[in-house]
Amino acid sequence: MRPTYERGIGLIEAVIASAIMVLVTLGIVAAQAYLVRSTSTATDLIQAQYLLEEGFEAIRLIRDNDWATIEGLSNNVAYTLSFNGAVWSATTTMGIINNRFDRRVTLYPVYRDSSSRDIAESGTLDPLTRRIEVSIAWFDRSATSTRTGTTYLTDLF
Questions:
Q1: Which residues pair with 134 in a beta bridge?
Q2: Contacts (Cβ under 8 Å, ≥6 apart) of 140
Q3: Phi/psi-derived region of residue 76, left when phi > 0, alpha when psi is between -120 and 50, beta in every other case
Q4: Residue 3 — pLDDT band, cuts 50, 70, 90?
Q5: Can you tell me the distance from the alpha carbon of 18 to that of 11, in angstroms, rounded to the nearest whole number?
Q6: Which residues contact 24 (CB under 8 A, 6 or more apart)?
Q7: Residue 115 — very low, low, confident or very high, per pLDDT cuts 50/70/90?
């Protein structure tokens, strides 16, 4: 017969081994969940950046087709871009891209300094130039994420 202090050692070893296995498994599951979440966030950011660039290209194509279309768009109004297979257009009708992203294009007037002709906060209105702001918004877990870019368009032709 074994001494009393040796009894139950095998059971304690089994419990400790089980606890270590559970902790390792939980660590692996937590790491995998973090990686999946990080990959999803990175994918959303990449898609948002592509949609932002596409918005700038679309508004440039609208400008290239006819500057009068740009002139006809109101200042400080958020427009949605739509593509009918041949031509881009701006509309105030809301449109969600891929059931996830909301892209808005807003045009602002541009003023020039009277003496230097540089872009300024106030001065002479430049009817041949508009400031364009494209913003992308999407719901990300518990908050809305956004990406915004700004450029200037001028009547080149």
A1: 105, 149
A2: 41, 44
A3: left
A4: low
A5: 11
A6: none
A7: confident
117: left (phi over 0), alpha (psi -120 to 50) or beta: left
Name the nearest CA neighbour of 96 among 105, 86, 104.
104
Q: For 48-107, how does the pLDDT look when each residue is reduced to its tens digit (9 = 90+)?
A: 999 999 999 999 999 999 999 999 999 999 999 999 888 999 999 988 898 899 999 999
Token readout for 71 is 């002139």
Bridge-partner residues for 79, per DSSP?
105
Distance from C-alpha of 70 to C-alpha of 48, rounded to nearest angstrom: 24
Residue for token pair 């702001």: 133
Q: Which pair of structure tokens corresponds to residue 23? A: 């902790």
SS3 per residue for the chain: CCCHHHCCHHHHHHHHHHHHHHHHHHHHHHHHHHHHHHHHHHHHHHHHHHHHHHHHHHHHHHHHHCHHHHHCCCCCCEEEEEECCCCEEEECCCCEECCCEEEEEEEEEEEECCCCCCEECCCEEEEEEEEEEEEEEEEECCEEEEEEEEEEEECCC
